[in-house]
Amino acid sequence: MADVQFNNESGFTLIEFIVAVVILMVGMLGLLQTANVAISSNRQNQLRNEATLVMDKWLSTELAKGYASASISPSSWYESRPVLNGFVNYSVVRSGTQLQNSKEVRLTVSWPYRNMRYSYKGGGIISNSVVSQ
Question: 94-126 pLDDT, tens per residue?
Fold first, then answer.
């Protein structure tokens, strides 16, 4: 009977194949983690952008009322806004200070994201524009 010899020098061994698969898996997991971080960062930026729009809306409303009608008494309310595929409840808190010839209106807009609370603060001053003659 003739001896059969196998030539093992061509192709991959099983160990080489497993090492290559492990290296590819580590690379793919790194790419997936990068995608998760990008999605989370994008969501945070969209939530913050929507908070600035809420702040701008309510601060413009207060400043447009004028000195006599602008309220500086503390109050709070919620505003639900669409962000991506859902709605987010923004909490708006108003406070203010009576100054010598003007009123300072302060607003704080806050929202939840991943079990944390984020906030955005802003304000404006309304002057009493009484013209003396």
Answer: 999 998 889 999 999 999 999 999 999 999 999
* Residue written as token pair 């500086």: 72
CA gap 123, 49 in Å, rounded: 17
Q: Mind listing the pLDDT tens digit for each residue in 7-40?
A: 656 677 889 999 999 999 999 999 999 999 999 9
CA dihedral over 26, 28, 34, 40, signed as positive or negative: negative
Q: SS3 of 52, please?
A: helix
Q: Where on the phi/psi map is residue 84: left (φ > 0), alpha (ψ -120 to 50), or beta?
A: left
Torsion of CA 108, 112, 116, 117, to 10 degrees: 10
Measured between alpha carbons, how far is 121 from 110 in angstroms, rounded to an integer?
Answer: 9
The dihedral built from the CA positions of residue 47, 52, 56 and 62, taken in this order, carries a sign that is: positive
Q: With left for phi above 0 and alpha for psi between -120 and 50, is residue 52 left, alpha or beta?
A: alpha
Name 107's bridge partners: 94, 122
